[in-house]
Amino acid sequence: MQETRRVRMTKKMIKDAYIELLEINPDKRLSITEICQRADINRSTFYMHYEDVNQLVKEIEDEILDQIPYPSLTEGTLSQKEQYLDLLKDTFEYIKVNKNQFILLLSQLDSNDFKKRLISSILDKYKALTVSDDSLISKYGYMFCINGVVGLLREWIKDDFPISSAELAKIAFGMSLQATDFSKIFNNK
Questions:
Q1: Count of Cβ atoms closer than 10 Å to residue 109 Cβ
Q2: C-alpha–C-alpha distance, residues 180 and 160, integer Å
């Protein structure tokens, strides 16, 4: 069932209120009452859209994960390496634009669940690109890369983006080449 404009606006108000409250006090477990007061809605309105705060947080996380760019290598004028660098740059730029949500989800909340979902989501999308005959080695190589990139992102966000998305993409890409069998893909092309 498709949401009406009014429903989308109400849910956005609730999400924005939740994020604003977390920005003010990131260590506090927020109540539905606090969220409703901040969003200027009734509790019954909150419950029309969400069962509890956990469902709200999961929806925020889902939206973030759904919008992250993923590979779709195409035939064209750009090499695969250039396409990957562009993809990483676009991903990092997306994170920069959505800084507040990522700060909360990756750093301030210390959300291991979100981090695991982020890693799992990225791993599922990228594992089709493996060229290794040993899936276990590929899995560990990708896990190493993804966890490393998440660490880079945390620092990049924490330091308020001291380098461009393109520069960070080059750093992440170079480190990933050294840790996985991606180099086989690019040396063969």
A1: 16
A2: 29
Mean pLDDT (whole number) for 158-179: 86
| CB 98 within 8 Å of CB 129 | no
Closest CA to 87 of 106, 105, 74: 74
Q: What is the pLDDT of residues 34-58, one digit of tens each?
A: 999 999 999 999 999 999 998 998 8
Q: Strand, helix or coil at 4?
A: coil
**Under 8 Å between Cβ of 126 and 88:** no
What residues contact 168, with CB distance under 8 A and at least 6 apart?
88, 89, 92, 152, 156
Question: Which tokens belong to 184?
Answer: 């086989």
* Cβ partners under 8 Å of residue 32, min gap 6: 43, 46, 47, 52, 53
**Can you tell me whether residue 170 is helix, strand or coil?**
helix
Length of the chain measured in residues:
189
On whether the CB atoms of residues 161 and 96 are closer than 8 A, the answer is yes
User: By C-alpha distance, which of 154, 118, 122, 151 is closest to 139?
Assistant: 122
Q: In whole angstroms, what separates CA 130 from the centre of its chain?
A: 22
Burial environment of residue 2 by CB neighbours within 10 A (0 to 12, 13 to 18, 19 or more) = exposed
Q: Which of helix, strand or coil describes residue 66? A: helix
CB 122 within 8 A of CB 68: yes
pLDDT of residue 124: 65
C-alpha 89: how far from chain center: 13
